[in-house]
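Record pair follows.
FIRST:
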Amino acid sequence: MTKQQIKIPLSVPENKKNEYNKNYRSLTNNSGHLLLIAGDQKVEHLNADFVGTGIDPEDRTPEHLFKIAATSHGGVLATHLGFISRYGHEYRSIPYLVKMNGKTNLGNNELKNSSKTWWSVNDIIKFKKDSGLNIVGVGYTLYLGGQFEAEMLVAASQMVYQAHQAGLTAIIWVYPRGFKVKEDDIKIIAGGAGVAAATDADFIKIKYPYNLKDKPGTAKKFTEAIEAAGRTQVVCVGGSKRPVKLLLEDLEKQIKISGTSGLAMGRNLHQRSLEEASKLTASLGAIIFHNKSASEAYKIYSPKTLLKPKSKSKFLGLF
C-alpha cells in the first residue's frame, strides 16, 4: 500500500495542516480510501437491525460495533458521541468519526427536522482533548428534496468548515428524499453528490442501486456520481445484508469501474458474529486498501481460510 498524496483544502489553516494530514491518513488507513463502519444505525434504524431472525446475538449490544472496528483492518467507526464516551476506554486504538446529527425511523420521516447537530464542533474538539481518543473527523446526514433542505445545507456546510478550521476531516451522508423523489435514480444521486461536494466535505456517502440487474452497466453509469463529486471522494452505502461473494463483487465494480474510494457498511457487517465480521473487514480491506480482486478477497473470507482469533497476526500477514 502506497502513501496517498493529500491535497489539503484551502479551508484548513496553515497552522492546522499537520493535524489535518494526520487525521486524514488515520481516516483512510494511510491510503486515501475509506472503510467506514456505520454505527449511527443505532439511532437511524432503532433496534430492528440489531435483533431478529438472521442477526447474530452478539449484535444486541453497542459494544459489538466497537469490537468489530477494533479487529477491522483499517476501518473507522462512525457513531454518536455518547457511545464513544461509554466504550472508548477499552477501544483506544480505533479511529473515530463522530456522527453529529440523526433521527429515528419512527413516525413520518418527511415531517422531521434533523438539521440541527447534537453537539458543536467545539464540543468534539474538547472531547478529543479530554479523552485522548483518536477522533479524526465529524459526519452529518443531509437529505435533499425535503422541506428542511435549506437548514440542512447550512448546518452541513458550517460543520465542514468548522471541522477543517480545527484540522479535522468531515464526511457528508447525502440522500435524496421527498415527495415523488426517485432515491435510486443515478442522475439524482449524482446531483446529490455534487451538492455535498459544494459543502467542501472530504468524503461523501451516497446510495448505490444494487437492485439493478446489469451490474457492469450500472457501475459504468455510476461514474456520473463520481464525476459530479469532483475532488471530494465518494463511498457507497453497503445496503441490506446479502451474500459476501456478491457484496465483494459489487465493491470491486464500484471501485474499479465507477471510481469510488471505498465503502460504508452497517447491517452487512454488524449483523454477523465478531469472527465473521472480522474476516469480512479483512476481505473488504483487501479490495479497498490493497487493490485485490473480488475473487482474491473472497479467498480470505472463505471458510477454507478462516482462522481462529488467536491467529490474527498470521491473518494480517495475508496482505
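SECOND:
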Amino acid sequence: MSWITLFFGFAFGTIVGSFLNVCVHRIPQEESIVIPSSHCPSCKTPIRFYDNIPLVSFIILRGRCRACQAPISWRYPLVEFIMGFFSVILLLRYGISLFYVIYFALFAALTLVSFIDLSHRIIPDVISLPGIIVGVLVSLLHPHLSVINSLIGVLLGGGSLYVVASLYHLVTKREGMGGGDIKLLAMIGAFIGWKGVLFTILCSSFIGSVVGVTLMLISSETDSKYAVPFGPFLSLGAVIYVVWGEFLITWYMGFLRGAAA
C-alpha cells in the first residue's frame, strides 16, 4: 500500500466526515441534509468552499466562524479525523477492495449514530432500519458472509438486547436500554453476522463498564445513576471486530488452550 494511496484514502475519509457532520447536526432536527447549503449555526452565513476544507479550514480559522467569530465545535474536526483514520485503517487491512467499500460504509453509519447518540441520546430509525436492509443485501456480495448468517445476526443482535431491556424493565420498572440500541445492534449483525454480534456485545459491555465506573469514580455528584449512551460502545465493538476481531479471537482461543494445558 503506497503512501499516495493512503493519503488520498485519508483525504476521502475526511470529506465523508465533513458530510457526516452535516447529518449529525440536521437529522435529529428532521432537517434536509442537502438544502440549504452548509452555513454557520450561529449567524447562518453560508460557508464558502475555501472555509469548508476538512481539518485544514478549522486550523486556518482557529476554530471560529469567519463571519461572526463564533466558536466552531471540536466535533467537526474530530469526526473528519476519525473517518480519515478509519479509511486508512481499512486500506491497510483490506486494501482497495469490496471489503473496504462495505466496511467504510458501515463505519460511516456507526460514526454518525455514535455522535448523534452522544449529543441527543437518540439513535434515529432513519439510519438503523435502512441499514439492516442494506446489510442483508450486502451479504449477497460478501464472500465470507452468507444471507443466513446475516439474518441470524439481525435476529441475535436485536433479539438479545430486546430480552435484556425487557428483563431490566420487568425487574426495575424503569426504562433501561432504548429501542435505538436494539435496532443498531440488529444493523451491526446484518453486516458482520452472528459471531460478530457476540463479539460486539462482549467487547462493548466491557468497555462501557470500564468507562461507566470510571465516570462514577471521578464525578463529584452523589447520584450514582448515569445515563451513558450505549450506542457508541456498540459501534466501537463492531469496529474492533471488523479490524482486529479474527486476531483477537485466535489469540484468546490460544490463551485458553495454553491455560488448560
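COMMENT: The chain has two domains: 1-96, 124-261.
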